[in-house]
Input
Amino acid sequence: KWLFESDHSVLKAVDQGKKLEMQRFRQGKPVKQLTFDYPPDSAPLEIIGPRGLGAEDLVGRLESPNGSVRETAQRLILERRDRNAVPRLESLARDVERNAARATALWTLHALGALRPELLATALEAGEARVRETALRVAREGKEQVARVRSRLAGLIWDADPGVRLQVVLALGDMRDPDGVLVRSEALAAAVRRDAADPWIVSAALSSSRGAESFLVHRLLQVETGGEGRAKGEEAVLAVAREVAALAGASDEPDAIQSILADAGRLLDAGGPSRAFAAADGLAAGADRRVPGRAA
Output
């Protein structure tokens, strides 16, 4: 039975299906032949050269269990820029039974410039975490797409999957408009409280805090105390607050620095020395980074 044929190689089953024979060709002449033992109890997989396939057949190949087949099909769809593939891609992007292919369909639609907002919104509510994560990654590819999912980010901070939560925090960093600073800082503070022990999410939160450092420090310094578990959680959150304050100190933004100093003063007066120290110490550490060689 012929399994695969191209200009360069031919693969077929021989010896009553017990072996695979591959013959390589160069300029129409055989140059090498290899024989492999065929895996027992395995049905031969028919592989068809993809270049002769139409748009719908190529989209169908996105469901293949073979990664090379999926990648080749996606590449050919994008190379051809064939809009006839869009309806089938949209159908695949909604198919809850084919989650791996669903994620690939989202990326392909985005690359074709044909991803509709409602499809992205539906993917954010998918039961499969990898589809939700993919939807967030796709959304982060453009300011308009981030704006469309903005209202959903706060809820996804509490997603059960850490990969989804990481993408949420990174998406928050893409919200650079001045009107969204308060929303961004509140959401980042919630993310830090949820995952203060996760170094990946903490690093993403620090990166996403740019331009909102003073607001984020203010939110993080409002952590509650009480109980051993709560105390340990507060310690981790205050460590993040110190790092955010250090970013503000290193940025040499007078308004942000004054705001954090004011928060530290109020906390000190209110009997919160550990929180006040986290803010002040972070500012000092940031100033040292900004002025190398400054005495501690």
Q: What stands out?
A: Residues 1-9, 225-229 have pLDDT under 50 and may be disordered. The longest helix spans residues 228-251. The beta strands are 2-5, 9-14, 19-26, 29-37.
